[in-house]
Amino acid sequence: MTAIQRATGMQDVLPEDRRYWDFVIDKATDLAQRYGFQHIDVPIIEYTPLFARGMGTASDVFVQKEMYTIEEDDDTSITLRPEFTAGFVRAFIENGMMTWPQPVKLFSIGPIFRRERPQAGRYRQHSQFNAEILGELDPAADLEVMMLAMNLYRELGYKGLTFQLNSTGCPTCKPIYIQALTQYLADQQDKLAAIDKERLSKNPLRVLDSKEPGMDKLLAEAPHIIDHLCADCAAHLADLRGLLEALDQSYTINFRLVRGIDYYTKTVFEVWAEGIGAQAAVCGGGRYDGLAEAIGGPSTPGVGFGSGIERIILGLQEQGIEAPKTPQPTVLVAHFGGETKKTAVTLTYQLRAAGIGARLAFARDKRSLKSQMREANRWGVRTVLILGEDEVAAGMVTVRPLDGGDQTQIPLSDVVTKL
RNA sequence: GCGGGUGUGGUGUAGGGGUUAACACAUCUGGUUGUGGCCCAGAAGAUCGUGGGUUCAAAUCCCACCACUCGCCCCA
Hints:
BirA Bifunctional Protein, domain 2
């Protein structure tokens, strides 16, 4: 653990990868705005209780263990955000967004922090694209966030995309389902692995995403929540499915996709893509009609999704999708030190001011033209502008194309317009 | 928290008890006057992850730790 080493789970984004970030962020921003979502930024730090919420369930306790929490001298506790949604909802309440035209559609892009063991595409600091619709119960809102997610990956060039869809019910019907599931699993207890027995006692819904062998068959015959939804939740799902079908958007009902905490309601979805290590999901989202109340605000329905930028990029690279190249200066200004350096510096800034990308050859004293030409080649510029004593004396500049064209001399004053 | 894999110049690798730790790429300089790529020559760059142990001798064998990585747990 030396001072000159990245902290665990942190990443440097080097220039050659950074272009993928611009590609993804630009696309996400463009698309979200096309859908009528407004860009917002919320703080990276919030008071801990905003994220701590309900407490009590097994996953909540775990959640707290994986948060970066700082206890301050004045007894307040703050936490690096482990997700976006809570901050959005807090901002909605605190800024009186209930008085804005409803619903409020927001998106943001930025880092979140989770103190977990890193794996492929999962880092302790990672960035998310998050989009949420607050204040709307219409399943068309669910559709909207789903399609925003799906079309993001499509427009980025992803292949092999599928929707995984389910409903997690609501406080009316979910407990009844959990009871039915628990009953079924308890009856089959001798067939469960140790880890699943533990899940059964702590958080039965989690048994549904068990990876233990034999569970596919066992769970296929288990009660499915879709058969236990109350009338309201069933109608919501039916409506959403009808809208997806109207768009000719295929989806797979995945009865193993659920959420264990009460404020998650109705729609749950993921987008899966081929590749990317153990996790197929490139995004997860759903409805949380109980969250605003859970953090002490007025009841406000919400639906949204989050998608990790690093994982999107990993997927792009695995699928062989190229991000656009970063623009590079097309000109290098070479000189021989002394007065020629002054002229070169002046010219370089004139070019830049005129919108032409230009590099200045650096040299404390004089430097061989060969070396400067090599540098030009290495950077891949198209043209070298040479300012030697002769040129400066004559008020000219030598224009040396690197692509095989003829070398010419033009007046210094014409360079900006002739390039 | 648990399990597998891996740690040798900036990067990728070779070397698996013996004296100057090798190679490729990258970097820098030069190949006569002010002209790139290819080529040639040279230079710089490594406490062989860290600490301990075995041995006359450890990059190499043993132990521990650390880091990275893949997966599990969990996934808000």
